[in-house]
Input
Amino acid sequence: MPASPTAVLVGENLKARNDRQAVVNREYFRAAGVVALNLLSSPGSGKTALLERTLSEFGQRRRVGVVVGDLQTDNDARRLAGRGGPVVPITTGTVCHLEADMVARACAGIDLAGLDLLVIENVGNLVCPASFDLGEGARVVVLSTTEGEDKPLKYPRAFKTAQAVVVSKTDLAAAAGFDRDAALANIHAVAPQATVFALSARTGDGLGRWYDYLDGLVEGRRRSADAG
Ligand SMILES: Nc1nc2c(ncn2[C@@H]2O[C@H](COP(=O)(O)OP(=O)(O)OP(=O)(O)O)[C@@H](O)[C@H]2O)c(=O)[nH]1
Ligand SMILES: [Mg+2]
Output
């Protein structure tokens, strides 16, 4: 028997309420014709660094906006501002993940129909964000070469629910003794469905393939809107 049945009930209600809001968000994104992407990783894996370049470079090809969550500070939003697309910070306080209603409120300040792609940078945490659907069209997990090849095995839920996995900081792979084959095998074992990218936001290595992937998501959304 759980120590506190009320706590379990509150948790279930929270999850059920989140899932209902996620359905609303997903329809809202579909109606606006925007691809929403949920970017997850442990703290410091390079989500914002990747988005800095994505906004500046891919943002020349497609209209990109960002919602960025952190427990405290709007540091990431300030790093991303001024790169041509709207950037809205969410400060969660003590909450270790974004929830669908936080994203809905942040999106109220954005002209979504004027965007092709909305990236939601989740709070740096490989555990809690995995359980909260934000209504995204695609979930992408970032794994940096400095955090260890075994992370997909230790934190499987995030990887299992991802459409893509980005191996970041390839420029640091040699210094960190990163075993690329072991990492790819672990990703594949847990997330055989995921498309895998290897890139460096520092050197630009591998970014072309990442941008082509984003472009494919935008084109896919456009084709499905035309079809139906
Ligand atoms: N060498 C190298 N450093 C990187 C790369 N990407 C990010 N960094 C560095 O890694 C650190 C963390 O990067 P961020 O982009 O802030 O990581 P994040 O995932 O957004 O972090 P949180 O939002 O706090 O979870 C910073 O010092 C970056 O400069 C990369 O490709 N190569
Ligand atoms: Mg960040």
Remarks:
- The chain has a mean pLDDT of 95.
- The first helix runs from residue 5 to 32.
